[in-house]
């Protein structure tokens, strides 16, 4: 069984460091034969961090070899970013700092999974901290800007780990993780915490944890999934799962962070990128994936983005049966108006006849 179908039928389950995901328990009893078959598929399709599935040219792992090195430039950093033996600190717990780190090699994988070991911590209490971390898969790299230390109107994918609510009227609970796909035409609105351009999101309490915190991003055949491991239970928890996402190959992975009047330490401990072994149709193989425009099958307009405390939106795309219902309601409305008009006209005619 291929890794892709096996993943989705069994779920991600417990997290295993260095691996692109391990399954949880299946539905029902498992015989010894089933267990052996599953074990064989794990050995064949899911491999550890020392195997060919871990793409080291796109991974940031201790002791951080090739970071900022002219002899082996795998990663470049700028701004306030500080490299230590234990972590890459994008910003210190100081005001008005911006920093980022970017992979030097463009990624030409069509299906991938990224694990990020990170830590956000500081001395600020309650809401007196900010702003957060952004994870990127974008066309341009090393371009500073106002969006968590990187450029606005970007091309590609962004995952925002936001720790401060700029919009005081929001019902969301922070810290909050959200996803945005951009073809360069959209601008991230900090005053609304990116609500107008967000595809999906979830509340995630990752700040000032005493244990390790992890985030996983998977992209395969148009499906984008974000999972978290924040409870020190060695298990992935679902955060975001959306389909219809279009991302080209040849873009760059990166991470950035920014602080304003409030601050935090924003640390990246590791970034591990895994190749997913997924079969594609001949038509998909003939596509020039470098020419794909970033986008989603249906982008909601800002007026559709009604806040929901669960982190999702109540409104959805006007497709299929919703369009049919709207047309049916409109048709019924026209019929009702016509009938009422005919009745009123007939009564007026009868009243006029009485005067002759």
Describe this entry's structure for a reader.
This protein is α+β, with helices and mostly antiparallel strands. Helices cover 17% and strands 27% of the residues. The strands form 3 sheets. Strands 1-4-14-6-7-8-9 form a 7-stranded antiparallel beta sheet, with no helix packed on it. Strand 10 and strand 11 (223-229) form a beta hairpin. The termini are far apart. GO terms for molecular function: D-mannose binding; metal ion binding. It is a single-pass type I membrane protein.
What attributes characterize this protein structure?
16 strands, seven-stranded antiparallel β-sheet, D-mannose binding, golgi apparatus, alpha+beta, signal, 4 helices, metal ion binding, single chain
How would you concisely characterize the structure shown here?
The protein is of the alpha+beta class and 356 residues long.
Topology, element by element:
Elements: H1 3-10, H2 32-45, E1 75-79, E2 82-83, E3 88-91, E4 98-103, E5 112-121, E6 132-138, E7 155-162, E8 176-183, E9 200-203, E10 213-220, E11 223-229, E12 237-242, E13 245-246, E14 252-258, E15 265-275, H3 282-285, E16 295-296, H4 321-353
Antiparallel strand pairs: 1-4, 2-3, 3-15, 4-14, 5-10, 5-15, 6-7, 6-14, 7-8, 8-9, 10-11, 11-12, 13-16
